[in-house]
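Its record is set out here:
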Amino acid sequence: MDLLVDQFTMARKLMADNNCNKPIRLGESSSVSGGLDHVADRFVAGFLWLDKLGQCALHAITRVYRFNVWGGSYSLLNRTTFLPNPDYYLTLLYKRLVEGYTFNASSNAPYIRAYANCAKPQRYTPGALVVYMVNVKDEPVTINLPQFSGQAVDVYWFTSGGEDVLSLDIRLNDVLMDSSGKNGISFTPKSIQGSIEMPALSYGFIVIPDANVEKCRDQPPTTTPRSRALVTKHYEYSRSSGAALKMWFVKLCLTLYFIVM
């Protein structure tokens, strides 16, 4: 999981050494050469994928291109049934929840990776915050959000839909995801107030609707039409040191005419 950070650092240094002030994009965003059979299209692949999205947001990567919708072992759709693979659901929910400023999120456990962004204002009240994380430990962990103690949160926990992490199926809050219904794909959160327990070997999102984060509350709404859905926007982001820089937030782009909502 740390190799990608080293590559971002190398890219930044290369640009600085050559006085290049251009945005960085991540192109090949899954495993090389089509991915590993029976792994890259399974539930387990989501650990790397969500962590990659978080790292891209932290390192101001302007766009992330996911390869690919169909074809290769890492495709988002099953090559036989054309039904969604686990990464499809994860990608779609990410797009529905995450937008705007990136914030530092820390964890005191090595088996937890955590990231934070503004929640999409079309889904939640402006000012809402979304924390997304992966838990690679084979037992549940308790998540504490001291800044928002006592507030109600919405959780979206993805777990394997089978006996192990190599399953082709995925569950959201213990409910098996199914795209065959007439109403399409829906993501129903679980509302929690108090202690937050993250399942073993899981990944997902915590939304704090009433976080009232100033930067999230004041960010301009995106009213970009569908035909321009892949256009990036930039925002000002201040590090803890007080130095201001332009932080480009990640926009996830999918190829092969996959329309991102």
Remarks:
- The first strand starts at residue 25 and ends at 26.
